[in-house]
Amino acid sequence: MKGHTDRVEAVAVGKRSDGKPVIVSGAYDKTVRIWDLNTGKALGRPLIGHKGEVYDVAIGKRSDGTPVIVSAAADGIRLWNLNTGKPLGKPLKTRSGLIYAVTTGRRSNGTPVIVSSGDALTRDVEIWNLNTGKLIGKPSVNPFAFTVTQLVTGKRSDGTPVFVTGATNGRARIWNMNTGKPLSGSLSRCGTCLVEGLAVGKRSDGTPVAVSGDISPYPATDGSVPRSSIRIWNLDTGKPIGDSITVKSEASIEVVVGKRSDGSPVIVSGDDDGNLSVWDLDTGERIGEPLTGHTRPIVALATGQRSDGTPVVISSGLDKTIRVWSLGA
């Protein structure tokens, strides 16, 4: 899928009110686009309004059922109606201006929210009411002077809604979405790593997990390409599950969690060679051969389902394209 004129930095999957499954993408060309997940065709014109590069996109739903796109960019956060592509209200007023990551979720009382993160100067992680665009409470402050570039939401086994942050100092952390307070210390302590990918999901036994993709910014001791790691964490306890998965990738390791047609949970990773790999979430074993097609590094992944039930993974990269792959068993 082509249309963006610069790197496609973010993709998300959701549904319009009529049930049509769609892809939303955000790029360094300062635009947001909507695509039909079934056909790969663009829906409408690009959404224009941001004055800087778009770093992340997410899809949520307001209390009245309106599906909403949330886009994060160098000039802040904007909301768009997913059905029409029209802007919803004015841009959200953030303290830092620049926003690297956004995600959506619901608090225990049913309030739909946006979680956002800015730069290392403010260290803010902010929670917003998706219905009103108003800030909820005070920002949760990342305790380390590093930028939070990864945000995902999920639920613990007891139903507690949480968000997970990943930062440029290699530290991931679990937070309570109701209170904005941390529920864990750092999941990892690799002070020289970067958390380049982050996802949440469930294993076959129902255990909720967070999955992180960590890279080293330095060459290996023998001068070869450094080894990156995919790590699985218990979302209830913050403890690691099993051994890390080693991936040969120098500058990018994106991750997402999805399910195959038979219901088995998988991790999909994307690397700086432009390849995707599928891994069994229960065992950590690779499934099949890498998926090839991108000509430059992959920088974003999402999973979803077509109208006919086919589970898919969506990838985007520095080659300015978006691709859809079947996750069928």
Observed structural traits:
329 residues, 25 strands, Methylamine Dehydrogenase, Chain H, mainly beta, WD40_rpt, four-stranded antiparallel beta sheet, WD40_repeat_CS, repeat, WD40_repeat_dom_sf
Description of the structure:
The chain is mainly beta and 329 residues long. The protein has one domain: Methylamine Dehydrogenase, Chain H (7 Propeller). It has no helices and 25 strands. It has a four-stranded antiparallel β-sheet, with no helix packed on it. Strands 8-9-10-11 form a four-stranded antiparallel β-sheet, with no helix packed on it. A four-stranded antiparallel β-sheet has the order 15-16-17-18, with no helix packed on it. The mean pLDDT is 89.
List the helices and strands and how they pair.
Blueprint: E1 8-15, E2 21-27, E3 31-36, E4 47-48, E5 54-61, E6 67-73, E7 76-81, E8 101-106, E9 112-117, E10 124-129, E11 140-141, E12 148-155, E13 161-167, E14 172-176, E15 194-202, E16 208-215, E17 227-234, E18 245-248, E19 253-259, E20 265-271, E21 276-280, E22 286-291, E23 298-305, E24 311-317, E25 322-326
Antiparallel strand pairs: 1-2, 2-3, 3-4, 5-6, 6-7, 8-9, 9-10, 10-11, 12-13, 13-14, 15-16, 16-17, 17-18, 19-20, 20-21, 21-22, 23-24, 24-25
